[in-house]
């Protein structure tokens, strides 16, 4: 059950964007990077450079609708990646499946593109923490983990081939469904070259892009979230506890592509009550109330959200007052959406958020 949720999310994410047609291009990207020790007690994990390669297939949105024009004909990409972490005996290697959204930032007349890419998927790691067999791996407690990627690339397209380079930041985490869960963070540089089955189209000129404003830019929504978090008095005796949360949010977007949002989070995290064994906390102290602000990007039926929050009420204070969130929302009906978020505290994943939301008022 702990890992099943990660598998389902990845399958749904891929199914939502699946296009049963010949890809516009395929490519391979060899890469090298290094592990970031974002906690002092992870420094022993940094040994050698990380190496890997990624195979991908991409499909370009070429519709005549206003959104595609305003997004400069973005690409959807699906990949499989093989890599190590520079410490094979403890961290092992990983194989990952990822779905990407590629947004063109700059296009030139000679078919050179500067792209910003966001991706999410799932990875299988050959090594994880084990009390007896692998006690040095204090970063990851499960072999199956979610993966998040950000890329910035420059690519030159020729009649049948393309060549480019880029930088990326990759994060592996199991969302505290299994301890330990400090996560693995890897910046990398890569080369990319591949074969084009069809030409990549440039977006329309800025003067030709449709300029429309939303009729109802203001929205109120409510979300219901269910998940779990595993903690223990010591890493050898962990236990999974339920987390139930609701969010009341307000969003504003003038044109639909970008927007801002504020929200109030009400969180019952049962694991917080068991964080410290010798305390005088009462059951009512579990309730956390957070004030959240962020931005989101809207494309087709999907939204990617980023933001920062502060706990106005957090009597137990297990992870600190500040938290951040990166999330994905998919509108399967006009006002109904499914959501998946990674909630974190200072670069450490607190837990995954799985839920459903409803937009109940617009004006």
What does this structure look like?
- This protein is mostly beta strands.
- 6% of the residues lie in helices and 55% in strands.
- The longest helix is centred in the first third of the chain and has 14 residues.
- It is flat, with a radius of gyration of 21 Å.
> What ranges have pLDDT less than 50 throughout 5 or more consecutive residues?
1-19
Global mean pLDDT? 90
**Which shape, going by the Cα principal axes?**
flat
How much of the sequence is in beta strands? over 45%
- The CATH architecture of the largest domain can be named as Beta Barrel
How does the major sheet shape up? 8 strands, antiparallel, barrel
Integer-rounded radius of gyration = 21 Å
Number of domains: 2
Name some characteristics of this structure.
2 domains; flat; Porin; 3 helices; mainly beta; 363 residues; eight-stranded antiparallel barrel
Structural topology:
Layout: H1 4-17, E1 25-33, E2 50-60, H2 66-70, E3 75-84, E4 93-107, E5 112-125, E6 144-157, E7 161-173, E8 184-196, E9 218-231, E10 239-252, E11 258-269, H3 270-273, E12 287-299, E13 302-313, E14 322-331, E15 336-345, E16 348-362
Antiparallel strand pairs: 1-2, 1-8, 2-3, 3-4, 4-5, 5-6, 6-7, 7-8, 9-10, 9-16, 10-11, 11-12, 12-13, 13-14, 14-15, 15-16
Short structural summary:
The chain has helices at 4-17, 66-70, 270-273; strands at 25-33, 50-60, 75-84, 93-107, 112-125, 144-157, 161-173, 184-196, 218-231, 239-252, 258-269, 287-299, 302-313, 322-331, 336-345, 348-362. It has 363 residues and is mainly beta.
């Amino acid at each position: 059950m702990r890992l099943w949720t990660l598998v389902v999310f990845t399958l749904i994410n891929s199914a939502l964007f699946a296009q049963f047609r010949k890809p516009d291009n395929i490519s391979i990207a060899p890469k090298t990077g290094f592990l970031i020790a974002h906690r002092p007690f992870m420094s022993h994990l940094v040994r050698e450079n990380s190496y890997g390669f990624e195979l991908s297939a991409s499909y370009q949105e070429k519709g005549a609708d206003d959104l595609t024009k305003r997004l400069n004909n973005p690409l959807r990409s699906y990949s499989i990646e093989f890599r190590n972490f520079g410490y094979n005996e403890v961290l092992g290697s990983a194989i990952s499946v990822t779905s990407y959204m590629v947004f063109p930032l700059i296009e030139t007349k000679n078919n050179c593109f500067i792209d910003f890419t966001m991706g999410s998927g799932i990875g299988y790691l050959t090594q994880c923490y084990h009390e007896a067999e692998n006690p040095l791996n204090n970063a990851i407690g499960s072999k199956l983990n979610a993966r998040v990627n950000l890329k910035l690339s420059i690519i030159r397209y020729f009649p049948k081939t393309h060549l480019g380079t880029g930088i990326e930041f990759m994060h592996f985490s199991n969302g505290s469904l299994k301890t330990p869960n400090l996560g693995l963070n890897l910046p990398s540089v890569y080369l990319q070259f591949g074969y084009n089955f069809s030409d990549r189209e440039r977006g329309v000129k800025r003067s030709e892009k449709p300029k429309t404003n939303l009729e109802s830019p203001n929205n109120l929504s409510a979300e219901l979230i269910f998940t779990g978090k595993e903690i223990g008095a010591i890493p050898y005796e962990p236990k999974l506890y339920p987390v139930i949360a609701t969010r009341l949010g307000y969003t504003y977007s003038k044109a639909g592509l970008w927007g801002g949002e504020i929200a109030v989070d009400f969180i019952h995290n049962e694991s917080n009550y068991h964080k410290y064994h010798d305390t005088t906390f009462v059951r009512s102290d579990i309730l956390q109330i957070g004030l959240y602000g962020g931005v989101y990007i809207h494309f087709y039926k999907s939204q990617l959200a980023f933001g920062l929050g502060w706990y106005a009420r957090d009597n137990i204070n297990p992870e600190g007052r500040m938290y951040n969130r990166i999330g994905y929302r998919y509108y399967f009906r006009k006002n109904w959406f499914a959501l998946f978020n990674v909630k974190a505290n200072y670069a450490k994943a607190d837990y995954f958020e799985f839920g459903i939301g409803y937009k109940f008022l617009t004006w």
